[in-house]
């Protein structure tokens, strides 16, 4: 395991030229103390690793040093040949390039590893899209991608409600969430994200974009997603579900989240703890099951369902 990590450190330094112990520790999921021990081991073995201290410092290899020890393990080869989300590669114009790269890699693999790669690609397929995702028009995506590659500022217009607003931005990245693309940019010294399908026009400027030196796109998106999730409204309820209704409830779980499932009672009914966005959605969903779903908590929801049912009954008795 340590030999694999030492090789990984060498390859990371060869690719990124310079990395701090903290960055290496995060990438390799070890402590910074372990990284320092590994650097000492590499130095003793004759690998020219150099430490530069102070602001902007880090570990690096002497510039002329290169290694060809890039042998792939069997799991690494399998991961490369798992089906990629082709619709996202198509959006970026990279689908054909991805296929060509895999063909070239396949051609240079030894026969036994080539068989392993073909074996896994025929037995595991990954479809990253959901059943209910809607296709969105994203004409702005190629221009945003071009701005990112060129490192230039952009001026874009964005549809907010019924109004179109204009923004001057430093492009930082693109993120695909399911089938939906988001554009991440620095605007007025704040980092924000915009749904690409709502961007109406993009103008590339001659000014060079300013990218924060410590910006990490994946880390930003993870924190942004966490912040967004924490602001979502939620409404908790507990229900008993008849055995014949249980498959339909599970099949509709995109409308809510099942937070806990309890043991089936003597009548065969299952108790579920559900989380909806609000009480109205909970009421409408539970009422659609008639007597096959019974509300246990909260009492207010049970009363709300009774009142709604009485209203429906009164309407049809007219």
Automatic annotation (TrEMBL):
GO terms for molecular function: DNA binding; DNA-binding transcription factor activity. Keywords: DNA-binding, Transcription, Transcription regulation. SUPFAM superfamilies: Winged helix' DNA-binding domain. Residues 2-60 form the HTH deoR-type domain. Pfam families: HTH_11, WCX, WYL. This is Transcriptional regulator. It comes from Dictyobacter alpinus.
